[in-house]
């Protein structure tokens, strides 16, 4: 990591709690510079605006999270354990940091305004990774997708939709984890024969 990358990372690390505390609109570049322990001039050498900085933070968070999801789905273990852990990694990386903030709604709205393409790309990547993992599990006879028409992509979309529903019903934290585990248990019942479940 070169000096510019290191400084940018330092700034992004400092900026996240500032955005969480004050929200996007009320956060100033001076607030971020203060939190990063640098001058405003130094901050502007790395980022031209608050919007550019916020977008850079979104790019980094989505990239790191999708790497974590890919690693999780590529590990050993049952397909159900891997999917459950991948869902939790997605939530922990992209939702949980803002979950307890009074400014969460505003921050999510700012993300959709400034980084909608990044969010959409991450969603597409998530669906692709889930589809691949489900197709491989079906091919290896770990699961049987006959009951869902042998369509891993459709099941991947259902998993993502369930993840969104659980988040909206329970928020993040222990309730989200319990809801995820319940959904995965139902998924297992739907995609494994009684022989495989035994």
From TrEMBL:
Gene3D superfamilies: Tetracycline Repressor, domain 2
Keyword Secreted in record: no
Organism for this UniProt entry: Neorhizobium galegae bv. orientalis str. HAMBI 540
InterPro entries cross-referenced by the UniProt entry: Homeodomain-like_sf (IPR009057), HTH-type_TetR-like_transc_reg (IPR050109), HTH_TetR (IPR001647)
Keywords: DNA-binding, Transcription, Transcription regulation
Stretches assigned to the HTH tetR-type domain: 5-65
DNA-binding region: 28-47
Coiled-coil regions listed: none
Name used for this protein in its record: Transcriptional regulator, TetR family
GO MF annotation: an example: transcription cis-regulatory region binding
Taxonomy, superkingdom: Bacteria
């Amino acid at each position: 990591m070169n000096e510019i990358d290191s400084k940018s990372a330092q700034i992004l690390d400092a900026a996240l709690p500032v955005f969480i505390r004050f929200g996007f609109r009320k956060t100033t570049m001076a607030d971020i510079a203060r939190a990063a322990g640098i001058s405003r001039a130094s901050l502007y050498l790395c980022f031209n605006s608050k919007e550019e900085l916020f977008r850079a933070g979104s790019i980094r968070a989505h990239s790191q999270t999708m790497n974590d999801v890919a690693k999780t789905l590529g590990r050993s273990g049952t397909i159900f354990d891997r999917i459950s852990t991948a869902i939790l990694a997605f939530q922990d990386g992209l939702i949980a940091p803002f979950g307890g903030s009074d400014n969460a709604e505003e921050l999510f709205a700012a993300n959709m305004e400034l980084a909608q393409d990044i969010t959409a790309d991450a969603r597409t990547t998530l669906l692709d990774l889930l589809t691949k993992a489900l197709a491989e599990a079906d091919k290896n006879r770990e699961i049987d997708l006959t009951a869902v028409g042998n369509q891993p992509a459709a099941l991947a979309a259902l998993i993502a939709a369930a993840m969104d529903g659980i988040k909206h019903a329970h928020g993040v934290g222990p309730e989200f984890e319990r809801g995820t585990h319940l959904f995965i248990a139902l998924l297992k019942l739907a995609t494994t024969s009684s022989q495989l479940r035994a």
